[in-house]
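Same chain as my last thread, 63 residues:
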Amino acid sequence: MDYIVNPLGKLVVWTFDALLVPIGDLGVNPNTIFIVMGFFGLFYWLRAQSKYNKEAEQNGTLQ
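reply #2:
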């Protein structure tokens, strides 16, 4: 089990050290970046869903 858990733990530590620490050094809170990315993703998804609903309504497949 150690052969799976140890590399996975090292990957997680490396990810935080390589990605989150440099972002924090920029003076920007990483949480803020993730929240903004989440809102962009949400608006993209809602826009795409609206498009698919209109297409389904035109085809008569919306239930």
